[in-house]
Design goal:
There is one protein chain. The protein is of the alpha/beta class. The chain has three domains: 66 residues, 2-Layer Sandwich (Histidine-containing Protein, Chain: A), CATH 3.30.1340.30; 72 residues, Histidine-containing Protein, Chain: A, CATH 3.30.1340.30; 63 residues, Histidine-containing Protein, Chain: A, CATH 3.30.1340.30. The protein has six helices and twelve strands. Strands 1, 2, 3 and 4 form a four-stranded mixed sheet that branches. Strands 5, 6, 7 and 8 form a four-stranded mixed sheet that branches. Strand 5 and strand 6 form a beta hairpin.
Length: 216
């Protein structure tokens, strides 16, 4: 797919995404790499635009240079954002809130601490990014070391084979320096992220090095 066609597809997907105002976003393409620019009114919209671009067939990577400019009615002090973030983390049943610390500076939220599962790390970021006043989220939460399972590679391979979205024959799994390394090639960025998600779901995984390439 040539870059002009890919740009049209990305613009169509942005228009299809209800959380995005495509008029606010610029799209440029170079060899399958998408760069998003412009100004939006929330971090939620910035993230939604990135996810929409990643869904498009032929996209190899996304550089999200969109800036969040909050309207006056949405402006909040760092203290207000920190209190709100602390509250939503403490109220969530998916997140061990006591294990996570929150720091806010100029609207940017930094999450630190450690949890047992990758889904808990992702849930923490997803929970705070939708708060009013947030301009960005830096997720520095780590995954706690768990018991080593010698069969971890086979468990991940089984998970890849079970996925209707993936051709497991195109992906290899190995352990290297304490991390799970994924290699191979897939047809879309969405498939690449599905493979990584499957690897993170295995018990005992604390790091995933996703070296899968997207080959349209």
């Amino acid at each position: 797919m040539i870059d002009t066609e890919l740009r049209d597809s990305v613009m169509d997907e942005l228009s299809w995404e209800p959380m995005v105002n495509p008029a606010e976003i610029g799209v440029s393409i170079s060899e399958g790499v998408v760069t998003l620019t412009g100004f939006v009114e929330s971090f939620t919209e910035k993230t939604a635009a990135e996810e929409a671009a990643k869904r498009v067939y032929g996209v190899r990577a996304v550089a999200n240079d969109i800036e969040v400019h909050l309207p006056g009615s949405m402006a909040r002090t760092d203290a207000d954002i920190a209190r709100a973030a602390r509250n939503v983390l403490d109220w969530s049943t998916m997140i061990p809130g006591d294990d996570i610390t929150v720091t806010v500076r100029n609207g940017w939220v930094t999450l630190e601490g450690s949890v047992d599962w990758q889904y808990q790390k992702e849930a923490a970021a997803n929970t705070v990014r939708n708060l009013t006043g947030v301009k960005g989220v830096e997720n520095m939460i780590s995954i706690r070391e768990r018991s080593k399972l010698t069969e971890i590679e086979s468990k991940i391979k089984d998970a890849l084979r079970r996925s209707a979205e993936l051709d497991a024959r195109r992906i290899s799994v190995e352990r290297q320096d304490g991390a799970v390394v994924l290699r191979g090639n897939v047809r879309s960025w969405y498939e690449r992220m599905e493979a990584e998600s499957a690897a993170w779901s295995a018990p005992g995984v604390t790091e995933v090095d996703n070296e899968i390439t997207v080959t349209a």
